[in-house]
Fold this sequence. Notes:
By secondary structure, the protein is an alpha+beta fold. It folds into four domains: 41-156, Topoisomerase II, domain 5 (Alpha-Beta Complex), CATH 3.90.199.10; 244-323, Gyrase A, domain 2, CATH 3.30.1360.40; 358-462, Orthogonal Bundle (Topoisomerase, domain 3), CATH 1.10.268.10; 501-812, DNA gyrase/topoisomerase IV, subunit A, C-terminal (Neuraminidase). It has 17 helices and 41 strands. The strands form twelve sheets. It has a four-stranded mixed beta sheet with strand order 14-9-8-17. Helix 12 (345-386) packs across helix 15 (416-423) and helix 14 crosses helix 15. The longest helix has 42 residues, at 345-386. It is elongated and about 140 Å long.
Amino acid sequence: xxxxxxxxxxxxxxxxxxxxxxxxxxxxxxxxxxxxxxxxxxxxxxxxxxxxxxxxxxxxxxxxxxxxxxxxxxxxxxxxxxxxxxxxxxxxxxxxxxxxxxxxxxxxxxxxxxxxxxxxxxxxxxxxxxxxxxxxxxxxxxxxxxxxxxxxxxxxxxxxxxxxxxxxxxxxxxxxxxxxxxxxxxxxxxxxxxxxxxxxxxxxxxxxxxxxxxxxxxxxxxxxxxxxxxxxxxxxxxxxxxxxxxxxxxxxxxxxxxxxxxxxxxxxxxxxxxxxxxxxxxxxxxxxxxxxxxxxxxxxxxxxxxxxxxxxxxxxxxxxxxxxxxxxxxxxxxxxxxxxxxxxxxxxxxxxxxxxxxxxxxxxxxxxxxxxxxxxxxxxxxxxxxxxxxxxxxxxxxxxxxxxxxxxxxxxxxxxxxxxxxxxxxxxxxxxxxxxxxxxxxxxxxxxxxxxxxxxxxxxxxxxxxxxxxxxxxxxxxxxxxxxxxxxxxxxxxxxxxxxxxxxxxxxxxxxxxxxxxxxxxxxxxxxxxxxxxxxxxxxxxxxxxxxxxxxxxxxxxxxxxxxxxxxxxxxxxxxxxxxxxxxxxxxxxxxxxxxxxxxxxxxxxxxxxxxxxxxxxxxxxxxxxxxxxxxxxxxxxxxxxxxxxxxxxxxxxxxxxxxxxxxxxxxxxxxxxxxxxxxxxxxxxxxxxxxxxxxxxxxxxxxxxxxxxxxxxxxxxxxxxxxxxxxxxxxxxxxxxxxxxxxxxxxxxxxxxxxxxxxxxxxxxxxxxxxxxxxxxxxxxxxxxxxxxxxxxxxxxxxxxxxxxxxxxxxxxxxxxxxxxxxxxxxxxxxxx
Length: 834
């Protein structure tokens, strides 16, 4: 067959590869990815330019969206109105764009995912910020290209005085790549740009001080900064977003989780349906109902929680299993010099600055050319003014305009442009006043030309012009941050994450029963009250009572010096009347031993010591003390560890967390006390024994240590006797002594007061919880207990029933009772430091 010159033979594989690459590049450059300079995709840029061409500006009347889409489709974007209208709608939605570029009127959809009305029913116009984006467009600041039909010109990029890419972000899917850029706050972006202009070598840390993270239009929370830093440093990162919530009391003792802000791009209607399905399927037993009460005043979704379920635990479940917590995956991909490139935050800032510098240079050059033309004409006016009579005579003597023009050129050395300007001059400009105006105008134009030349020739001046424009934009359009950045990172959920962090009272009875009770279970009473019941088992006595945080670790010390560990939340919460569970159900205590000391710590891998004191019940008539590094207790086995080699007959009574140079005070049953520095007892290994702490007088064989505490000069020592009497004394009244002595008197123990049963170092705003042998409990304000001298008897704290006596006391730290535990509105539990 003869070869046909109109046809060529090609390999199918090569042709498919070449055609697909061409298609892919077309999608990447002409459709899916934004330009780093103005942050717009071609369709967005064409819509805004078409609206400007229609004079549909921010101060004009609204125009039907159908007309806008038709103009865009007919002149610039050949892919149909069905593609253009959704893009226009998104640029008008305040929940999609941090700074909408289009001001819409009508139904443009909702955050519930409702569809917008058809374009024949909606109207729109440009916003002031979109006008800033196109400012100076007619001053030859950007390149232009033919439209698809080669009948009109369209801008290839906008001048972009408004940093749209950084402020509004962008999303797009191309072939083999995608972009997902988060929005930011305009004020913070402007501050970051100013920082880069002032300090071009500034670091990412310095940038993040003024631009801490994205700012989403739907408010909400950003959990942690790790994902932000990764995105800013590498262009890729995962930012955890969370709804803003708070907990309100509901009817009949129920709780209500109230959602007021959602993570970015979360559909509220779908979220409500998902929570309703959880309630219906009982996936979390305790979520009863969900209702959406959102209106024009704001968002409000209420989730009803059963009265016996902790609402914080329900909230944590919802954060894990619904879109109340989502992830925004940052892919900072945009077109740089018409090629896809990953742009970390500093690169994006620098590319914007480079674009604005180019725009300002081109604008200045354009203005310079216009100013030079005006100066040239004004020079002609000055020639005419200086030779006014001759010019008038020449014009009157000329046959026609052409002859007059030639005469002006030949006689006065004017250019054709100047000659035409003089010939077109109006007669009123020949007055003396007008001549002064011409001269002033010439000087003004000359100064403007000099100024423009200085800007073009001086980089610092040009940068100052850019800086002043950024400052003006910030001051005019800047607003406050919407999305709050929470310091806590939102990692993977563990069982501990589902336990609310709150304060509680741990009670261990004489018979070894343990329970955890909310602080609020013990109502506050005035000093001298009768108290409330603590247990249904009247013959059992509370032996240990202490305050804990549910996420802290409790160390249990036995009378024989062995230590065990347990998380506070592993002890089930129970009511005041509950008996509790045997402590041996939770820790593997060696047979015959019993818990005699406890301490709650947040972290064992920190500096500090565990200072342990015995009661002094052995034959040697003294109590012992020992210090061991806190880190030695970081890894405690299930069957415990030896913490103190106890002398026969003695028993361990207290474990204090000390810092290495604290004073320790010990109080005995007979009213003696001793204060000394912990360094008097040298640090020893975990399994070693102790040294003498306090000696008891020989005439009292029943004396023993009943309390041990750290000294704080700003606090007072509160001492309580077994008959319900107590007093406070400034710790400054107790002088520092040497370890091992018998101490000084701290309370005058009489038949009225009884022997001392306990003591606490307290502050004015603390509360005191007093427990009796018959299970009564009373909580009172410490400041109601009068401060007295060291040897006084004190005042009555509790009215005891016949045959009852005080068995133990516990200090409740200020700010952790009476409902004043501060829960953040986000649903994050407050952390109470030790």
